[in-house]
Amino acid sequence: MSTRSAGLDQTAGQSLEQVAERLSAGARRWTGQHAGYLDSPAGRAELPVTPRVKALLQLALLCHYWRRTAPADTALGEATAVVERAWQRPDFPRLLTLGPRTARQFQLMYAALAPPGAATGAGRTALARLAADGYLTADGEPRYPHLWKRFYAELAGADHRLAPYRELYATSALARAGAGQPVDGLDVCHVTHTVFYLSDFGFRDPGLPGPARERALDVMTRLTDRCVRDGAWDLVAKLLLAQHCLGVNPLRTPSGAAGVRMLARAQTPEGAIPGRSAAERAPATATPVEFFRCAYQATLGTALAMLVVTRGTAGAAGAAGSAGSAGTLGRAGGPAEAAAPAPALRGAR
Question: In this predicted model, what pLDDT tens digit does every residue of 170-227 receive, in sequence order?
Fold first, then answer.
């Protein structure tokens, strides 16, 4: 497995659209070819349980949006087969609960991300347990973590008593960030996932009024510039997707174009992004397992981002806003109240 990046020679002379399509196809191909390691005998023996389970949930999230954007993709079938095998394992529900800090989060995601045709009994049991524990009920004032919880509860079809998105967004760091204010103290995962949750990863209007949307886009643009300078591959992929979710085409913004070309130069001939950043690139001496653990997070994140950017509902935020949400965060049952994903998942490290 090569750790050599494609380099400038692979992107010179190509349009940005061609570069983006090549980046997307390569990341999807690598993910489909190598995700099987997660649920293989070797993977079960060599990877710590909780990170491995987290990586499988992450793969299920990718497959959820992959089916919406490129349902005929061969690599999707390969990745979906891995998720289906994991969901069919009798011991998988128990593995979800082994991390005390992540057990309830993982169970909710498991119920929400079951692949088509999967048996739903274990998922329904998990939801019933979470409801009985009060996990799907607001505990006091609205808090940012409830944002991802609301998304997965709705994706799973579970009843919940969580605050509307408008109130949950108001508790986020992104809502408090002002235009032109320094962004150095912001957590990129936090602010990008706020937008992902509100917009269903770009498949609905995020419901932000015009000024709030502009402030959020200003934050994403400046963070993208900074992360491109830092060679932060994994974070740049998230920021490209966040720009898209806010209603702009990142292939048409200077920061987005720089981010796409940086990722394309980093990508190996096999399609992997060989680490979370240039500073964390897998060494040339990495074994296949070491390379997988370095590359999985950034490659999967790039696959998700570029799938939606190149094949998703480009400009959905603006279009949906004019179609019915009137640019405001909806209340329960409104246009902006459909779904939203969970905290950033780290790679199988």
Answer: 999 999 987 678 898 899 999 999 999 999 999 999 999 999 999 999 999 999 999 9
Per the document, the length of the chain is: 349
Q: Which residues contact 259 (CB under 8 A, 6 or more apart)?
A: 224, 227, 228, 236, 237, 239, 240, 250
Q: Which residue has the tokens 């490659």?
A: 299
| Whether the Cβ atoms of residue 337 and residue 165 lie closer than 8 Å to each other | yes
DSSP alpha helix (H) spans, 47-73:
49-69
Q: Of the candidates 208, 217, 205, which has an alpha carbon nearest to the alpha carbon of residue 321? A: 205
User: If residue 263 lies in a helix (H) or strand (E), which one and from where to where?
Assistant: helix 254-266
141 C-beta neighbours (distance < 10 Å), count: 9
Residue 321 tokens read as 């806003």
C-alpha to C-alpha distance for 21 and 29, rounded to whole angstroms? 12
Tens digits of per-residue pLDDT, 90-127? 999 999 999 999 999 999 999 999 998 776 688 999 99
Task: Quick: pLDDT tens for 43-69.
Answer: 999 999 999 999 999 999 999 999 999
What pTM was estimated for this model as a whole?
Answer: 0.87
Instruction: State the helix-helix crossing angle for 210-230 and 188-199, rounded to 10 degrees.
Output: 140
Place of tokens 């570029």: 306
Task: Name the residue among 113, 111, 117, 168 with its Cα closest to residue 138.
Answer: 168
Hey, which residues does 161 pair with through a beta bridge? Answer: 137
